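Ops channel
N.P.: pipeline sanity check, posting one input/output pair.
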């Protein structure tokens, strides 16, 4: 800045200086001519030459000083706008100008490298698979990457209000060292998170690693062993008993063999259903913390489910009444899990409804039912069966919970169908309502939102 001001004032002074230099020999030549020592014509010629040289050199120097001023100003403000070279007339100024140009090119290259490095760093941070948030000293969000937006689009406030997280924030700010905490976020579904607070001067970075899948896998293994051993113990004992009977007392009794083989086939099929439902439930629980993003037009899917159940409905002499407008909105949903959800509910209505009765499937936009938030889709499935007593309703979605264990096993129930329904709805951030009264049937109502974030 000082150099620019100096050069701005230097070129008029330099021009005046050279004019003064031109005036001095003019005075000398004038005196010589006056005293007769020099003819006036050579004196005039010499004066003209000196003046022309002084004015020309002064003009060149003044121009070069102006160019140098512009170069220095560009070096400070916008080096990328300068040409690769410039023309300087005075020999001494040329080397100075070339040095200025070299500095400008070096600065231009340095800025370009810094911008490229900053862009690469930003792109890398944006593409991190783990959520990363930048917080101020009060714990308010300054910036967050794409993973954080996707993972906590509607739950950031609940995350930042977590007591353990607030303690970790205060500890990291006080110590200036990274602080790690494991927390459980229960809204909207249970998630196990490992959070690291990283202070960097004033702001603080919060790196979040979602350990829900790992914890779910550990829990799945433990639950699968516990549940399968409990549910498979009885049919397995039956199979062992019948095998021993067939090898012993019934070895020569064809009639008993056929009867026992039929029972053994039923018990093996029951074991197969239990294992299949346990595996399905485990797969859903593993992905429960991650809501689906694929958009689904529900009426078309429900029509396919209904068409696939027609043979079973005919065999049970049960009629299915469907009321479903075509203008329902699309919702984010996993087609396979939604198919399993409504297949389980329809199968439940078929099993526990009245023989020769009617099942009603009604779909409406979300705002049509005041129990749920506006938007999305509400689907209700009603049967005209024996109904369920009030005290059983809160526990219907527990795994292996049965209102009537004998009847459930007799019709092939595993006690896992409604547990699967609950976890599918949880993954879709929806809600389930159950209404029932003994002797008046049961209504299962599912609300699926238009946004899962």
């Amino acid at each position: 800045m000082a150099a620019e001001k100096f050069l701005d004032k230097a070129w008029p002074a330099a021009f005046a200086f050279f004019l003064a230099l031109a005036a001095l020999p003019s005075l000398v030549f004038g005196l010589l001519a006056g005293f007769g020592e020099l003819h006036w014509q050579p004196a005039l010629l010499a004066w003209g030459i000196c003046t022309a040289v002084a004015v020309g050199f002064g003009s060149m120097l003044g121009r070069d000083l102006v160019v140098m001023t512009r170069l220095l100003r560009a070096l400070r403000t916008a080096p990328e706008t300068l040409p690769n070279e410039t023309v300087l007339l005075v020999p001494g100024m040329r080397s100075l100008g070339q040095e200025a140009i070299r500095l400008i090119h070096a600065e231009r290259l340095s800025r370009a490298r810094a911008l490229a490095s900053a862009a690469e760093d930003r792109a890398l941070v944006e593409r991190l698979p783990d959520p990363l948030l930048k917080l101020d000293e009060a714990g308010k969000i300054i910036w967050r990457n794409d993973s954080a937006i996707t993972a906590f689009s509607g739950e950031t406030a609940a995350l930042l209000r977590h007591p353990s997280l607030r303690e970790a924030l205060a500890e990291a700010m006080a110590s200036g060292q990274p602080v790690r905490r494991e927390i459980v976020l229960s809204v909207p579904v249970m998630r196990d998170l490992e959070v690291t607070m990283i202070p960097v001067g004033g702001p603080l970075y919060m790196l979040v690693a979602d350990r829900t899948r790992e914890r779910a896998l550990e829990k799945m293994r433990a639950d699968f062993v516990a549940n399968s051993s409990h549910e498979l113990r009885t049919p397995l004992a039956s199979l062992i008993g019948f095998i021993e009977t067939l090898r012993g007392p019934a070895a020569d009794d064809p009639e008993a063999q056929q009867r026992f083989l039929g029972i053994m086939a039923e018990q093996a099929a029951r074991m197969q259903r239990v294992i299949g439902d346990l595996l399905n439930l485990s797969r859903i629980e593993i992905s429960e913390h991650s809501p689906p993003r694929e958009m689904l037009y529900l009426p078309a899917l429900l029509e396919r489910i209904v068409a696939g159940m027609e043979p079973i409905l005919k065999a049970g002499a049960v009629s299915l009444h469907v009321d479903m407008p075509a203008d329902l909105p699309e919702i984010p949903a996993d087609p396979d899990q939604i198919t399993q959800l409504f297949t389980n509910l329809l199968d439940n209505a078929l099993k526990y409804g009245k023989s020769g009765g009617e099942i009603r499937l009604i779909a409406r936009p979300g705002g049509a039912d005041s129990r749920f938030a506006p938007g999305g889709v509400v689907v209700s499935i009603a049967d005209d069966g024996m109904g369920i007593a009030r005290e059983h309703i809160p526990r219907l979605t527990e795994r292996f919970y049965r209102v009537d264990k004998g009847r459930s096993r007799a019709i092939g129930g595993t006690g896992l169908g409604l547990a699967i329904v609950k976890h599918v709805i949880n993954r879709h951030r929806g809600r389930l309502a159950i209404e029932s009264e003994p002797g008046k049937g049961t209504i299962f109502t599912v609300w699926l939102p238009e946004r899962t974030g």
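N.P.: looks fine end to end. Residues 132-210 form a domain with the Beta-Lactamase fold (CATH 3.30.450.20).
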